[in-house]
C-alpha cells in the first residue's frame, strides 16, 4: 500500500528524541534518526511541505525496482527526513573504492558503492557537482573497524566513488541480448 501525502502529515520529535512523522489516523512513522544527528529543535512540529511531497514522489518513482510498496514508502520517507533535517555531513569517501568512470547522480537515483566487504545499494538524497548525500538501502554494513552503516544510514560520498546501477543494468541487458 502506497501512502498518499496530505495536509495533516506533521514532522515532530518523539519521546525517544527520534524524528517522527504523524501520518494521521493514528499512524506514526518513526525514522531511525536521533535528534543529535538533526538540525531541529525540541518543539519541532512542521507540516509535511509541498517540497516534501515532491521529494516523496521522486523517491518513490526511483525506487520502483523495490517490489514491496512498504519498503518503497519507508525508504522514501527516510530519504526526505535526511534531505530536510540531517546535519550537514563531511564526505567519508575513503570507505569506498574509486571508480574509473565519474558519475554525476540525479536526486533519488539508486547507486552502488564498492567496499572491501561488497557492494552497497544506496539512494541519493542530495546531489551536488562533487559529492552526494546518500542513504543505505542495504542492511547494516561494516565499513571499517570503527564504522557501521546501518540500513537507512546517511553518508556523504565524493561522486568519483559512485556506480550508476541503472547504467550497469542497461549494460548487462545489452550483453545478455547482444
UniProtKB/TrEMBL annotation:
One of its GO terms (cellular component) is cytoplasm. The keyword Glycosyltransferase does not apply. The keyword NAD does not apply. It comes from the Bacteria. Its main location: cytoplasm. Residues 88-167 form the Cell-division protein ZapC C-terminal domain. One of its GO terms (biological process) is division septum assembly. InterPro entries: ZapC, ZapC_C, ZapC_N. Residues 3-87 form the Cell-division protein ZapC N-terminal domain. Keywords: Cell cycle, Cell division, Cytoplasm, Septation. It is found in: Cytoplasm. Belongs to the ZapC family. Contributes to the efficiency of the cell division process by stabilizing the polymeric form of the cell division protein FtsZ. Acts by promoting interactions between FtsZ protofilaments and suppressing the GTPase activity of FtsZ. This is Cell division protein ZapC. It comes from Zobellella endophytica. The lineage of its organism: Bacteria, Pseudomonadati, Pseudomonadota, Gammaproteobacteria, Aeromonadales.
Amino acid at each position: 500500500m502506497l501512502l498518499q501525502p496530505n495536509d495533516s502529515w506533521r514532522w515532530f520529535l518523539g519521546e525517544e528524541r527520534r524524528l517522527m512523522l504523524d501520518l494521521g489516523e493514528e499512524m506514526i512513522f518513526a525514522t531511525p534518526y536521533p535528534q543529535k544527528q538533526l538540525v531541529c529543535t525540541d518543539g519541532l512540529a512542521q507540516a509535511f511541505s509541498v517540497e516534501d511531497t515532491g521529494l516523496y514522489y521522486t523517491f518513490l518513482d526511483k525506487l520502483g525496482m523495490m517490489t514491496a510498496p512498504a519498503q518503497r514508502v519507508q525508504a522514501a520517507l527516510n530519504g526526505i527526513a535526511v534531505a530536510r533535517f540531517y546535519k550537514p555531513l563531511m564526505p567519508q569517501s575513503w570507505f569506498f573504492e574509486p571508480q574509473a568512470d565519474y558519475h554525476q547522480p540525479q536526486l533519488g537515483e539508486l547507486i552502488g558503492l564498492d567496499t572491501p566487504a561488497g557492494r552497497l545499494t544506496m539512494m541519493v538524497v542530495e546531489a551536488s557537482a562533487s559529492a552526494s548525500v546518500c542513504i543505505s538501502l542495504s542492511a547494516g554494513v561494516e565499513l571499517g573497524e570503527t564504522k557501521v552503516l546501518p540500513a537507512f544510514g546517511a553518508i556523504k560520498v565524493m561522486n568519483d566513488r559512485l556506480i550508476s546501477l541503472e547504467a550497469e543494468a542497461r549494460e548487462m541487458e545489452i550483453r545478455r541480448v547482444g
